[in-house]
Predict the structure of Universal stress protein.
Amino acid sequence: MDSDPRRQPGPIVVGVDGSPSALMAVRWAAREAAFTGSGLRLVHVLTTSAGRAESLMRAAESVARRTHQGLAIESATIGSPARTTLLRESRTAALIVFGASGHGPLLGPAAITLSLRGGCPVVVVRDAIPETGPVVVGVNDWADCAAAARFAFQRAALYGTGVTAVRAWAAPATPDTMAIRSKEHAALAAELSTLADEFADIPVKHVLVRGRAGGVLLDYGERARLIVVGPHGRAGFPGVAAGSATGQWGSGLACPIAIVPTEASPGPAAGAARTGP
């Protein structure tokens, strides 16, 4: 058995479609694989000629190797439907990663299906890969986001950063506003207390914000290294959750966003902090 507590089960899988966004996702995934000691698996669902597919995969592998030499990289060009391919890959992957503005079958409905029914977290990478900032997790409905919260703490330990847990509060101001705010803040801290004890070295900030949930995460995404949400939008962040038809895969976020299924939260063990690959 591998004794390295950072190592994750299964490879990090990246969807390759030839777009600049997908190549940014390859970069992010390669760095993540270096952090965790995972393998990197590049997957292309065949929609073009075999020659074109081979060229796309070579370009993606080149980006991965320039990002971090020495990675264990495998490539697969698959002809089966995208949804079938992604669900199958998710059963053995540590993460599945996409570029947010890619094209073809590796985004859109197939990726949304994966985030709701897949067996591992889905990470959507936009146009930047921040190297600093906290891991921000949306925590409104604990049933939907308990696994997301654990994933956030695991990633913070990996990156050597803190966790900012955000609960959005859209209720109008009333004479009881301060009392309600205090109660919700205490509830948020209580829900995270077990994780805070387990990851005792991770600084935790509890934030209760009045405002529209999607806008709150957009604001915090400007300063975050990663945003983490649950899969169904019940966490109070339907504007960025993958299950929302209006989510547009985190449109407007400045950092990658991870959507964590309720039953899946793979990651390194507590205390496995690193600050770089």
Q: What stands out?
A: Strands lie at 12-15, 40-45, 73-78, 95-99, 122-125, 135-138, 163-169, 204-210, 226-229, 257-259. Confidence is low (pLDDT under 50) at residues 1-7, 238-249, 264-277.
